[in-house]
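Dear colleague,

Thank you for sharing your sequence with our group. We've completed the structure prediction you requested, and as agreed, I am returning the results in plain text so they can be pasted directly into your records. Please verify that the sequence below matches your submission; if there's any discrepancy, let me know and we will rerun it promptly.
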Amino acid sequence: MSDWGAEGAVIDARNTEVMSEWEVVNKAHLKEARKARGGPSIQKAYTTAMKKMQDDYYEAVGKPFGLLRVGPRLARKSTKEYAAEKRQAKRMAEDAVRLEEQRKEQTAREAELEAQACELASVEAALSEREVSHEVEVAAAAKALEQERASLHRAKLEDQKA
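Please find the predicted structure tokens below.
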């Protein structure tokens, strides 16, 4: 039995050695697998949310003032290319401001024209009302003239009979 115990101790020592080697190899393997997966999902969600916040901030603040979202190093551009891109962004921001001013002017003009259209409609309605009342007066005068003419004609006929 002592031989068996001695052999067991040797096997245990060998197993311990193999297990420690396996843990080192497996740890590296697991680390590579985690990298391939892309890290924990919480970190990914946080990174995505922060990128979206920076994009929103750029759209709301940076873009209207002609700023760029990324610098020349991150975009891997030469100084000349980056300067040209900055000029282009500045022109686009100025054009956007100019377009917004034109839109406001257009809206004001449309409101003014709408007010004039309402005023013209009310004047037209008043003129139409006057025209109708004038037509009624003319019709009444024509009727009165017709009656007078008829009475004159009757009077003339009576004078001829008499």
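Summary note from our side: The longest helix spans residues 79-161.

Kind regards,
the structure core
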